[in-house]
């Protein structure tokens, strides 16, 4: 299955250590810039649906502001060890456009 990449922001629109909510094909996706790398994950925390784009970013992870659940920006896994995770999406930069890959 091939992926298609969709432009969601421009370089400079997302600040280091912060998230930004983007909507692509009716999906809410949290876009982050952490340690110079862009990451994209589902925006809703699987615990109670809090927006992860509002979360606290540290060490390539985001902490949900509602109840403190932490998720890896690299692979979406719940860092505290439960089996839940959030979907991740590939991100690339083409010229000054940030693009997210969708199936």
Question: Any key phrases for this structure?
Answer:
10 strands; Rieske Iron-sulfur Protein; three-stranded antiparallel sheet; mainly beta; four-stranded antiparallel sheet; 103 residues
Note down, in words, how this protein is organized:
The chain has 103 residues and is mainly β. It has a single domain (4-102), classed as Rieske [2Fe-2S] iron-sulphur domain (Rieske Iron-sulfur Protein). Helices cover 0% and strands 47% of the residues. The chain has no helices and ten strands. The strands form three sheets. Strands 2-3-4-8 form a four-stranded antiparallel sheet, with no helix packed on it. It has a three-stranded antiparallel sheet with strand order 1-10-9, with no helix packed on it. The termini are close together. The mean pLDDT is 95.
Précis, in short:
This protein is mostly beta strands and 103 residues long. It has one domain (4-102): Rieske [2Fe-2S] iron-sulphur domain (Rieske Iron-sulfur Protein), CATH 2.102.10. Helices cover 0% and strands 47% of the residues.
